[in-house]
Design a protein that fits this description.
This protein has one helix spanning 24-33, and strands spanning 2-10, 17-19, 40-48. It is an alpha+beta fold and 59 residues long. It has one domain. Strands 2-1-3 form a 3-stranded antiparallel β-sheet, with helices on one face. It is elongated and about 65 Å long.
């Protein structure tokens, strides 16, 4: 199991768009560059099952 995140960003909750967690910092930089005085950021955590790794033996 590992943690993953559902993220949204916008000038307010109604205009917020989905972004990947890895892209959130860039989206915040873009908001600053666009002159936003405030922004809405939503980060929801979720657990994700890791796929089981199969170990192959050459015996």
């Amino acid at each position: 199991m590992y943690w993953d995140f559902d993220c949204r960003i916008g000038q307010d909750a109604n205009s917020a768009k989905t972004v990947k967690f890895e892209e959130l910092a860039k989206a915040l930089d873009k908001a600053k560059e666009s002159g936003w005085m405030e922004c809405y950021v939503e980060i929801l955590s979720k657990t994700v099952d890791k796929p089981v790794k199969t170990i192959h033996s050459n015996l």
